[in-house]
Design brief:
With 328 residues, this protein is α/β, with parallel strands linked by helices. The chain folds into two domains: 219 residues, P-loop containing nucleotide triphosphate hydrolases (Rossmann fold, 3-Layer(aba) Sandwich), CATH 3.40.50.300; 82 residues, no CATH class. The chain has eleven helices and twelve strands. The chain is globular, with a radius of gyration of 21 Å. The structure holds adenosine-5'-triphosphate and magnesium ion (MG). The site of magnesium ion (MG) has 5 residues, from helix 1. The site of adenosine-5'-triphosphate has 16 residues, from strand 1 and helix 1.
């Protein structure tokens, strides 16, 4: 059953160069319990899309389109109704745990806040729920007191507190925005395992935002690849990985280092995508990737590409998608 439908979502933010459309005409949908990945280089609009779903965009931003959660367009709701959805039906693990947590509030109080607000439990029941959550995220209260402050925890432990807050009210959708960026590799794996386990055991839908294609491959059923505020390729994760069609997706994949392929003597150099993501006010006409793409033609620079079907469950927004031969 369709849980979430995002239709023609556009977000304009005020920037140093005036109002700029940061994400443009985003369309996707999710079923209950589905795991969807969002991948792309820094600045391509992954977090802004997530913040739009949480109705947490800056007050002076403009949002167009629809975000339909079980038949209800949340962009049309008043702030009181939005508060009843945020943290309750949609939970989010933010990109930076140190800035997302309140540094002067004990972790127990931070985790209990949304429980108290949304579930209307008594003090005793709230304490029981917090204790249960802390157990679930691997911070049992017998070892980690609820009276600790964020600065008394390691990065991984702080991220666990964020996860407890995000899942406190059993949301229908959990958004994990780069949940492991600031962590070392072993802790990264533990946190990802925890998120996957929690999503599986509770049937929550998951939006996993990551730069890391490995994380997306391990975690998600469907994936959208974003570039400069647009979706450039989308489909089932297996289809997209087996048959990457957008030169940008292929560039991201080729940039992953493989054992033995690094710049050791006699080995090939690591490949990278030439150029940089254009700044918001310098985005070109037509396909935004054209300036960095070896396959670009005149048409790419003149007109934005429409969606082309690669297979039943796979679409690409490119005039010159890659074929199998191109990737040999
Ligand atoms: N509050 C803001 N005001 C103005 N511009 C913003 C604001 N927040 C983000 N942007 C701009 O919006 C664009 C998309 O940013 P976003 O944070 O969604 O990127 P991202 O894909 O999440 O990147 P990263 O992988 O680095 O987290 C960027 O160009 C960024 O500079
Ligand atoms: Mg981000």
């Amino acid at each position: 059953m369709t849980l979430l439908q995002v239709q023609d979502l556009c977000v304009t933010l005020n920037t140093a160069h005036g109002p700029q459309e940061v994400i443009s005409h985003i369309n996707f949908s999710m079923d209950a319990g589905e795991k969807l990945g969002s991948v792309g280089e820094s600045g391509c609009g992954k977090s802004i899309t997530a913040l739009a779903l949480m109705s947490l965009l800056p007050l002076d931003s403009q949002t167009k389109g629809k975000i339909i959660l079980e038949g209800q367009d949340i962009l049309k709701l008043n702030s009181r109704k939005i508060c009843s959805i945020r943290g309750n039906r949609i939970g989010m693990i933010f990109q930076e745990p140190m800035t997302a947590l309140n540094p002067v509030k004990q972790i127990g109080a931070q985790v209990s806040e949304s429980i108290y607000l949304h579930l209307k439990l008594t003090r005793k029941q709230t304490l029981e729920r917090v204790t249960e959550l802390m157990d679930k995220v691997g911070l049992p209260v017998s070892r980690f007191g609820l009276n600790l402050y964020p600065h008394q925890l390691s990065g991984g432990q702080r991220q666990r507190v964020m996860i407890a807050m995000a899942i406190a009210c059993n949301p229908d959708i959990l958004i994990a925005d780069e949940p492991t960026t600031a962590l070392d590799v072993t802790v990264q794996e533990q946190i990802l395992d925890l998120i996957r386990e929690l999503a599986d055991s509770s049937g929550m839908a998951l939006i996993m935002i990551s730069h890391d294609l490995g994380v997306i491959a391990q975690t998600t059923q469907n994936v959208m690849v974003m570039y400069t505020g647009n979706i450039v390729e989308m489909g089932s994760t297996m289809d997209v990985f087996q048959n990457m069609s957008h030169p940008y997706t292929y560039g991201l994949f080729s940039a992953i280092p493989h054992v033995g392929s690094s710049a050791l003597p006699g080995r090939k150099r690591l490949s990278s995508i030439p150029g940089q993501v254009p700044e918001l006010h310098l985005r070109p006409r037509g396909c935004n990737f054209a300036d960095r793409c070896s396959r670009a033609s005149k048409m790419c620079k003149a007109k934005e590409p429409m969606a082309t079907r690669v297979s039943d469950q796979h679409q690409v927004w490119c005039y010159h998608p890659l074929s199998c031969e191109d990737k040999k």
